[in-house]
Amino acid sequence: MKSSLWPGIKLVFVKEVTLGLRFKAAWAAMLMFALTTLACVSMALQGAPLEPKLAAALLWIILFFASMAGADRSFVDEDMAGTLSTLKLYGAAQMVLWGKLLYTGFLLLCLTVFITPLFLLLTGAEVVLGGVFMGTLLFGTIGISAAGTLIAALTCGAQVKSGLFSILMLPVILPVFLPAIFLTAGALGGGSAPLSYLVGMALYDGVLLMGASVLFDYLWYED
Amino acid sequence: MRAILGLLTLLVLGLVFFVVPPAEGLGYYVRLAFFHIPVAWVAVLAFFISAFEGGRFLQKGEMLADAKSAAAAQLGFFFVILATVSGAVFSKLTWGAYWNWDPRQTTIFVLLLIYGAYLTLRGAMPAGRRRAKAAAVYALFSFLTVPFLVFIIPRLYFSLHPSPVINGSGLAMDTVMLAVLMAALVDVTGIFYGLYKWQTKRLLAEGENV
Amino acid sequence: MITIEFSEVSQSFHGRQIFGPLTVKLHSGRITAVTGFNGSGKSTFLKLAGHLLLPTKGEVTVSADDGVLRQAALRERLAMVTPELRFYDRLTARENMDFFLGLRGISLTDAAYRQLLERVELSAKAAHAAYTGEFSTGMRQRLKMAVLLAAQADIWLLDEPGANLDEAGRAMVAREVRAAARQNVLVALATNDPGEEALADEIIALAGD
Predict the structure, then answer these.
(1) ipTM
(2) Does residue C18 sit within a domain?
(3) Degrees (nearest 5) of the Cα angle C152, C158, C160?
(4) Least C-beta-crowded within 10 Å: which of A42, B118, C11, C134?
């Protein structure tokens, strides 16, 4: 009856996808929220040309807040539906963490793929360094998913939930956020985009993933 | 302990106001540094203690460790505010602007955000083991940002701070100033330690009623 | 051989003591009923037994032949039926079972699945076609029993397993509980139902405060 890790992770991931497909409202809400944020920013600019630095900052602010609306649900929804206790009983910590983390990553990647082209289109910003741009978006997404999954589990016992997730997320995600803005600015033609930053982001992502994995056990098991 | 700290505080104040000479380029504004540097040091120290005690709680499950972690974070929040404000004033007096996202300012600001987030999390949960656990996990998770604060931020932002404060290469520190600074550091750390003990006891007593 | 040992365990919520100090020992192959009026801490007792909650004072030790069980090692040998457990409303009964049992590394063949549904007297048609969100409370209770039976666990923690079931359902629960005890499963049963109490080899009456 020893259950191995990978099939368990896959089960959790597939379960999340199935539920996501059957309950499309959650996806719709997340994408609409992203679109609203994007529309808000681009309308406020009224088509004024954007400096690469400013464009980069705006893109990441939109991505950050849009992800906050998508990533915080993973444990709270289960808690409210009452399925969290069943999941705790039958699922081992690492299966649940990695399954959910993969799903959150998938969700945020979809979100990024949805927002970024629209953002470039609406603001007229041009990507000069495609590879750096893609890499930055990818590492940013991984970092947000890693931190987001752990913090979503953390906040699910809290009585006051609104805003708490973002409050806890920001300081932890800053080490991804700031280099990402810097690199994105470079990729949009505003200054240099040193590869060492990209490496730094990847390293920090690794640290977050490991930290989340180690700490999640404590949240999952009472004893 | 209290008497010694009181005397030391008086001594440091006396030294700062009557003995320390005006620094080159800073004049008497340098007096503020003897407050600002120790307070900032304690703010960082409290962060380490909070994370360390959080780790101890996860290992041993003793509510004492949770109370210590919380006490350190509460005091850390207080000290980080003092450090931020005194830093901003110092910055205005010497560089002409309250805030300019200098690396140390950024670091201290991130620290402020972390403390704020930690205390908000505690406030949002009912007292008990679950809260202790969540708080400890967050204290450790946010501790992962330390390498970033130390190594990456200084590269991202241009600095106006005299870099290695202690060896005196930036701020011309003579022996007298250095000695006074050390005394101030010991003094403020002592005050922090006293408050930390006291607050831990208080939190523990509160926790038992819950 | 599995034992769950409570030594000087007491539990309080917000300063109010729910029960204790309690010292008891539960053995595999035996059915232990936990009784007491509402609020006396029956459900809490089960959670403590499964380490889903840590006691305010005292210690709960679960041991098997190969040592003390904790965390994942304990969870893997645990199965429960409680009112708090819920299934995914937007998955069918089969999908729910495949998911939760799959997490334990158990996969059911179609035949085993059909057999299981028959054992808990759940219509296969309903189980296949409908999401569990559309199930009645009684059907959900039967589905919980089905997962419990298939989980091959050594420890059963049951909180009013007969609740919301008709007479046939309660008889099914009684039958399965007895059969499990014969298979050397440790059964702890929180109940106020005289019929379920009668199943027990031992009764722990929680007085409350």
Answers:
(1) 0.91
(2) yes
(3) 145
(4) C134
Residues, chain B: 210
Structure tokens at C8: 């000087």
The number of folded domains in chain C is 1
Report whether C38 contacts C159 (CB < 8 A): no
Give how far A219 is from chain C: nearest CA, Å: 11
Spans in chain B with pLDDT lower than 70:
23-26, 154-155, 157-173, 208-210
B19-22: Cβ within 8 A, 24+ apart: B19/B176, B19/B180, B20/B176, B20/B177, B20/B180, B21/B174, B21/B176, B21/B177
- Dihedral sign of CA atoms A183, A98, A77, C90 in order: positive
Handedness of CA B193, B195, B198, B201 (dihedral sign): negative
Mean pLDDT along residues A175-184:
91
Q: What's the CA gap between A102 and A87, in Å, rounded? A: 17
Is some CB atom of chain B closer than 8 A to the CB atom of A150?
Answer: yes
Q: Which of A159, A170, A215 sits opposite B124 (nearest CB)?
A: A159
For chain C, the chains sharing at least 3 beta-carbon pairs closer than 8 angstroms are A, B
CA dihedral B14, B17, B18, B23 (to 10 degrees): 140
Nearest Cβ partner for C103 among A8, A85, A221: A8
User: Which residues on neighbouring strands pair with residue C59, listed in sequence order?
Assistant: C7
User: For position B159, what pLDDT does the model report?
Assistant: 58
C182, with CB counted inside 10 A (0-12, 13-18, 19+), is: exposed
Tell if the CB–CB gap between A171 and B153 is shorter than 8 Å.
no
The answer to whether residue C41 is domain-embedded is: yes
How many other C-beta atoms lie within 10 A of the C-beta of residue A40? 11
Residue of B nearest to A211 (CA): B141
Count Cα atoms within 13 angstroms, Cβ side, for B121. 31
In chain A, which residues have their Cβ closer than 8 Å to the Cβ of B157? none
Question: Which chain B residues are within 8 Å of C54, Cβ to Cβ?
Answer: 61, 129
Specify the pTM: 0.91
Quote the minimal CA–CA distance from B145 to chain A in Å. Answer: 6
Residues C14-62 have pLDDT tens digits of 777 878 788 999 999 999 999 988 888 899 999 999 999 888 888 999 9
Q: List the Cα angle A61/A65/A67 in 5-degree steps.
A: 115
Residue C48 resides in a domain: yes
Domains in chain B: boundaries? 2-209
The CATH number of the domain holding residue C5 is 3.40.50.300
Tell me whether residue C35 is in a domain. yes
Task: Pull the structure tokens for residue A151.
Answer: 């913090």
